[in-house]
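Repro:
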Amino acid sequence: MDILSHIYELLKDQKNVSLFGFGTFCKIKSPGHYDFEKQIFLPPTYNLRFISSYVDDGLLATYVAQQRNISIETVNYFINKFVENLNLLAEQQQQIDLLPLGRMVKKNGEFIFVQTSDLDLGNEFFGLPSFKTHFSQVQFDNKENTLEAQELPAVVDPIKVNLLPKEQGLNALENRKHNILTWVIVVFVLLATSVTIYNFYDVEFKAQKIALELEKKQLKDSLYRDSILKYSILKDTTFQDTLQKEEVKSDSVSQTNILVENEKLRQDSIKKTVSIPIKKNQKYSYELIVIASKTQKVAQEHVDNYKKLGYSAKIIEGSTPQTFKKISIATFSSQEAAKKALPAIQIKLNNKSIYVYQNIIK
């Protein structure tokens, strides 16, 4: 897939096209100016600049997908391969051909983009032609590089010209016209020089402005992604803490008439560790409870999620249908083994609310 050809076609309608992972091609408008060496007036045109900043705006991938009638995922695959190849060439070679746009040349350890001489980036100026001038009256001194002109003659009063002899009057008028034309050319050359200098700095300013806008957009996108991630983490933590509090509250309300053992179970569950005296002829299992849910559907979703993480998750039913259903991710035969494994799992899941629960085996 010829990615550069698609960038070239897209630049005819867009001011800049970003190649994610490599850089951005910017189309800069260059006003008309005068070429002193060739003595030619050049019409307004576009110049192509390259900056190392880039942004993933999806413009190139969407355009190629529409042109080739393929999916955006397929286009992104080819773009990523193309960028990897360019970065590899940049490390190994001193010059990279980017036809039809131009080429990258390494100077003093940095790559400089040089566009092709016949690059056509669109025409907004009605095809104005360039035209050549001939200034035979102006001469330049090679040694002092200064503009020389003939000395101005004495000012001739038009009223008194008629009083002079015919030949003398004609010569005076010719000299006056010659001097006026010389000064007009001098003023024009100075004006053209000023315009050329202004255009040069204007192009540099526009390129820096585009690079600054791209950097601001990248920073804005990065801050937005960080804020979404922090909000998601805070939301999940708050949700788990709320469920844990509702579980403790529900258990305490539904078991208010049970003996001292249940009261101790409620207090120890707040500390995230439960310990109930073992009755004779009664078998127990010790479960690591990570969360609780009021409905069977939500509880089963938690079990499925923790099984995907590699845990032996299961649902521990409450003493009554109204009691929250506890989600266990590990089962132990002794309380000591469960307490010993608890800190490692709390650190691994980054959840200090996990606690040991003594479950009666029915």
